[in-house]
Amino acid sequence: MIMFQELPKVYLYRDFIDFRKSINGLSAVVEQQMELPSTDGSVFVFCNRHRNKLKILYWDKTGFALWYKQLERDKFKWPTKIDSEHMVLSEQQFHWLLSGYDVVGHQRVFVESYC
C-alpha cells in the first residue's frame, strides 16, 4: 500500500475481531482494549476469525480511513502466540503481512495466483 509511507507505528491486534465492526467499533477497540490513542497517525491492523480478511484503521489528520483486504483462497499467517494482546510491527513487517509473509517467521504464507 503506497498510502502508508513513513508510518509512526503499526499495531497488530492479536485477537480476531468481529468484522461487522467498522470505524467506530474498531477505534473503540483501540482506545478501550489496546489502551492506545486512535488519532495519533498510527495504523491498526485487525483480522477476522477465518484469517482471510484484514481491516486497517488509520487516522490521517482529517478523519479515519478504513482499508479492507480479502484473500480469495488463502489465509494470512496471524501471530497468535504472543504474550500481549497487540504487537508493534515495523514498516517492513507490515508490508510482509500484506504480501503474504509470516511477520514473525518471515516465510511466504500463500502463493499469488493470477487468473
Q: Report the span from N to C terminus.
A: 22 Å
Task: List low-pLDDT spans.
Answer: 107-115
Strand percentage lies at 15-25%
Helix share, percent: 10-25%
- How many beta-strand runs? 5
User: Which strand order spans the largest sheet, edge to edge or round the barrel?
Assistant: 4-3-2-1-5
Shape: globular
**Count of separate DSSP helical elements:** 2
Oligomer classification: single chain
The largest β sheet comes out as: 5 strands, mixed
Please state the structural category: alpha+beta
Radius of gyration, CA atoms, in whole angstroms: 14 Å
Task: Write down the domain tally.
Answer: 1
Order of helices and strands: EHEEEEH
Average pLDDT over all residues: 82
Features:
115 residues; alpha+beta; five-stranded mixed beta sheet; 2 helices; 5 strands; 23% strand; disordered C terminus
Q: What would you say this structure looks like, in words?
A:
The protein is built from 2 helices and 5 strands. The radius of gyration is 14 Å and the shape is globular. The model is unreliable at 107-115 (pLDDT under 50). The longest helix is centred in the first third of the chain and has 11 residues, at 23-33. It has one domain (10-99). A 5-stranded mixed sheet has the order 4-3-2-1-5. The chain starts with 9 loop residues before the first strand and ends in a 16-residue tail after the last helix. It has 115 residues and is α+β, with helices and mostly antiparallel strands.
